[in-house]
Write a structure and sequence with these properties.
Layout (H helix, E strand, L loop, with lengths): L4 E2 L15 E2 L3 E3 L5 E3 L6 E2 L15 H11 L5 H14 L6 E6 L5 H10 L7 E8 L2 H10 L4 E4 L12 E7 L5 H5 L2 E12 L5 H7 L18 E15 L2 H9 L3 H4 L2 H8 L4 E14 L7
Parallel strand pairs: 1-7, 5-8, 6-7, 6-9, 7-8, 9-10
Antiparallel strand pairs: 2-3, 3-4, 10-12, 11-12
Helix pairs in contact: 1-7, 2-3
Bound molecules: S-adenosylmethionine.
S-adenosylmethionine (SAM) binds next to helix 3.
Length: about 290
């Protein structure tokens, strides 16, 4: 039996002029001389200041730490397991593939997918890219695995060569159909993992006076080049057994900012909570029918 060969990504592109980035000792450089340092933890920042909408975009360090503590409890492992299954069902595992986690956060899901890849019997080469707009998130992710290329960057202008990605997945993230078009190969896959209507409904009932439904609509209507080929749902219960777990969950979701003060106070005194987890996996095939530009 041969385990898959995991190799570094070879398709990084300069975020300024889109030229191929070549790796030197401690930095990447394009033919026009734009240079990007490799941090000592191994990640590279490919988010130029002109692509930033704020000084410190994306999740804060406190949110990242709450997410790491929560995900490391294993509550969301069934999501990571099903995601890995779907990914390796969708790919032709006898070919070389580049898998990209768009909005990877602190790297929990990509680390899980990399572990699952080790069990696949194939002699082909796999490369993994995890990218997030939040520097604290990518810093945390780079500690989870040395086998991925970790990038600070934005989904709206992903810094990779045209037609160089075989599969993108985006978990609870800010996907960009337009941004992804530039880098996906024809007939490649995009997997969106999104909350279903019942996701964490018990938490929402506590923290909102009138709980809003989970937003399950995609954030862009630009689906022209993407065909939905499969949908799966996953529903299971989790039982949080102490207040830190409850606060970590609240801190890692956008719910915290929308909660009313009464809701926040009741959560602060809770020691246990039973929750419904309701997740949708949408698999798209990318078939370019429109001009890429
Ligand atoms: C809800 S978190 C999900 C993180 C991770 N996928 C997970 O499920 O653990 C959303 C992530 O998207 C990142 N993000 C927000 N806007 C982004 C963008 N334009 N490009 C890439 N990542 C972005 C945030 O920094 C945050 O880490």
């Amino acid at each position: 039996m041969h385990a898959m060969n995991i190799v570094p990504a070879q398709n990084l592109a300069c975020p300024i002029d889109k030229l191929e980035l070549l790796k030197e000792q401690r930095h990447y450089q394009c033919a026009n001389g734009h240079s990007f340092d490799i941090a000592k933890q191994g990640y590279v920042n490919l988010l130029p200041v002109q692509h930033k909408k704020s000084k410190n975009p994306g999740d804060s360090k406190a949110m990242v730490q709450a997410r790491t503590r929560f995900l490391d409890t294993g509550f969301y492992k069934p999501i990571a397991d099903l995601l890995s299954d779907i990914i390796f069902q969708q790919l032709d595992n006898d070919k070389d593939n580049c898998i990209f986690d768009a909005g990877c956060g602190e790297g929990y899901y990509l680390q899980h997918v990399i572990n699952a890849a080790q069990a696949i019997n194939s002699e082909s080469h796999l490369s993994f890219i995890g990218m997030d707009i939040s520097k604290p998130a990518v810093l945390a992710a780079s500690k989870r695995s040395q086998q991925a290329s970790w990038i600070v960057g934005t989904n709206s202008q992903p810094p990779f060569l045209d037609e160089s990605i075989d599969l993108i997945f985006c978990v609870f993230g800010f996907h960009s159909f337009d941004g992804f078009k530039k880098i996906l190969k024809p007939k490649s896959r995009l997997i969106l993992v999104e909350p279903g209507e019942k996701h964490l409904q018990e938490l929402r009932e506590i923290i909102y006076a009138a709980p809003p439904g989970e937003k399950t609509e995609s954030k862009s209507n630009d689906h022209n080049d993407y065909t939905l080929i499969d949908t799966k749902t996953l529903e299971f219960k989790i039982q949080l057994t102490n207040n830190s777990q409850i606060l970590d969950l609240l801190n890692m979701t956008p719910h915290l900012y929308r909660a009313n003060s009464e809701g926040k106070t009741s959560i602060e005194s809770m020691d246990s909570l039973s929750l419904t987890t309701d997740i949708m996996f949408k698999v798209f095939e990318y078939n370019p029918v429109n001009n890429r530009s």
